[in-house]
Amino acid sequence: MEAIRGEGLTFLYDKEEILKGVNIEIAKGEITSIIGANGCGKSTLLKNLTRIYTPKSGRVYIDFKSIKEYGYKELARKLAILPQGPQSPEGITVEELCYFGRNPYRGFLDDKSKRDREMVEYALKETRLYELKNRKLNTLSGGQRQMAWIAMSLAQETDILLLDEPTTYLDLAHQIEILELLKKINKQNGKTIVMVIHDLNQAAKYSHNLITLLKGKIYSAGKTRDIFTEIMIKNVFSLNSRIIQEPVYNDLICIPLT
Amino acid sequence: MKAKFIYVGLLLLGVTLLSISFGAVYIPIRHVFQELFLMYPTESHYIIVNYRLPRVLIGILAGIGLSASGALFQGVIKNPLVSPDVIGITKGAGVGAVIVLLVFPKNQWLLPLGAFIGAMIVSILLYYLTKSDGFSPKKVLLVGMALGIVCGAFINYMITKYSFDINSVLVWLTGSLWGSNYSKVFILAISIAVLLPLVLVNYRAINNLILGDEVAVSIGENLLRSRVILMVLGILLSSISVAYVGSLGFVGLIAPHIARKIVGWNSKYNILMSAFIGAILITLGDLAGRLMMPPVEIPVGIFAVVFGVPYLLYLLSDRGRKG
Q: Which residue on chain A is closest to B261 by alpha carbon?
């Protein structure tokens, strides 16, 4: 079963072709990571699977329904995307931010519903921000702030969550905290998660599937075990490497060679 | 939150009473009370009803229009430097108004329409001239100011060439409450009464836009539709105000900043608060202008510039950007 399907996606940015006919399938209820070198179009591809970008040609289906047929709020109840480095208004609290995730469920002048409160509470607890809910976002550490944004996306109660480099600029402990949270949420709720991520070992450890992108085209896509190979690293990242298996959890680890 | 609005409301009331009371002719505050709240005619009846009251009302209404519109623009464009007066939109309204004055001198009711068309034209130009840079704050500011200067020059040219009633045109050059009357109060009051609630019920769309395009799309905002609706409302609010008090600069820039300091980021509160603050600022400015060297009146627009320019410079400085 697929949650998202993209067919023949091309996308231009300033007349430069960033995506060159990409076909992509995202498996439902699994974690998929998009990896590739800088400037290969990873983020662009992710945004083309939402309403943020509209591909120049090609089609996107969310749950077998063309993205164009979704209403704005209807799509937002199905799919959430957390962009890189989002901006927040000065002085907003963690809880206030989370309520933005409820926007697609609220009518024009509706007050907060019981469900809104429940979901915000759930999101705050999952991200371990409940104690900090009245803190202002700009007084939090980088890791907590990113967690707050993830909490907002969780409050959105969508089947699908896309994340653009969710761990960038965080220290290793916070990176793992976020990835573990995503893993847990995927396991518990079967949420489909797609992320763009730079750290190859983390991508391999936390993803069921990998999609590798090379200069605006799909290089390979499939189960992590099949995709995460020395040849792929060589061709996609122009890097010689050795891939070994961690003895306890059997995670694949890529070691760059000079 | 309610308490804050009550305090600011009381402050506005106080300023209003003072502004009716003081001027070239002093009116005892007792008379103002009797006239306004008890409908009890006093010896000051004529001057209150025919001079002070319409003037103060115009000031309050224009303050509401300019400041609510400023808060709206700052939210929608996510740019604290943007308000319709700083980026030339009100100057465009001024051009429209002056043309109406020239071509249809007898039809005062056309003024808001002319102002709106002028403001729209400048807004559309601004849109296309800054689009390529992704509406970067500095570019919008620079291009907007340039457009404002062009509009200002055009107004000057019109005045020189057609040498019509200099007093009524002076209004558009500096921004003044001079020559307020009830027909102006009436049109302005109805416009604000229709437009302001329309802006206020859209507060959630404004809040969503503040989070940036990508997050706004993710949580289901129809960017294009919301932007167009909100901008047109903002342009209407400011241009109609400008039609009657002139391109009164900087109030629309400063009031939203003060309002955010008082009630925070949420548009649900800070647009209405901006309206209150704007009304207070204009009323105070006009009062000061009448008191400084009577019987000469200093237009409120001059005060707005005196306080507004340093504030704009502060916002442009590094400290302002961080704070």
A: A91
List the beta bridge partners of residue A10: A20, A57
Distances (CA, A) of B83 to B65, B74, B301: 12, 6, 15
Taking a C-beta distance cutoff of 8 angstroms, is the pair B252, B84 a contact? yes
Q: Do B219 and A103 touch (CB under 8 A)?
A: yes
- Owning domain of residue B92: 82-318
**Is B35 within the bounds of a domain?**
no
Task: List the single range of B66-70, B142-146, B157-161 with lowest mean pLDDT.
Answer: B157-161
B99 in a domain, yes or no? yes
A103/B208 touch (CB, cutoff 8 Å), yes or no? yes
Sign of CA dihedral A98, A102, A108, A112: negative
The answer to whether the peptide bond before residue A166 is cis (omega within 30 degrees of 0) is no
pLDDT number for residue B43: 79
User: How much of chain A is in helix, strand and coil states, percent to nearest 5?
Assistant: 35, 30, 35
Please check whether residue B289 lies inside any domain of the structure: yes
With a CB cutoff of 8 Å and minimum separation 6, the contacts of A158 are A76, A77, A78, A79, A80, A191
Domains along the sequence of chain A with CATH: 1-78+160-174+182-258 (3.40.50.300), 86-157 (no CATH)
Query: Measured between CA atoms, how close is B73 to chain A, in angstroms?
Result: 15
Question: Between B291 and A227, where is the model more confident?
Answer: A227
- State the pLDDT at residue A243: 95
* 3-class DSSP assignment, residue A234: helix
Token pair recorded at residue A200: 């190859």
Contact A52 B214 (CB under 8 A): yes
| Model confidence, pTM | 0.88
What mean pLDDT is predicted for residues B268-296? Answer: 89
CB-based contacts of B100: which residues, under 8 Å, 6+ apart?
Answer: B107, B110, B111, B113, B114, B115
Per the rule left: phi > 0, alpha: psi between -120 and 50, beta: everything else, B153 is: alpha
- Find the range with the poorest average confidence among A120-134, A198-212, B50-64, B305-319: B305-319
* Res. B34: pLDDT tops 60: yes
| Amino acid found at B16 | T
Q: Does A86 touch chain B (CB under 8 A)?
A: yes
Rounded Cα distance, A227 and A136, in Å: 42
User: Is B97 among the domain residues?
Assistant: yes
Partners of residue B220 in chain A, C-beta under 8 Å: 72-77, 103-104
ipTM of the complex: 0.93
In order, the DSSP letters of A58-127 are EEEEETTEEGGGS-HHHHHTTEEEE-SS----TT-BHHHHHHHTTGGG--TT----HHHHHHHHHHHHHT
The total of structural domains in chain B comes to 1
Q: In chain A, which residues have their Cβ closer than 8 Å to the Cβ of B76?
A: none
Q: How far is B72 from chain A (nearest CA, A)?
A: 14
Question: Hey, are the CB atoms on A75 and B215 less than 8 Å from each other?
Answer: no
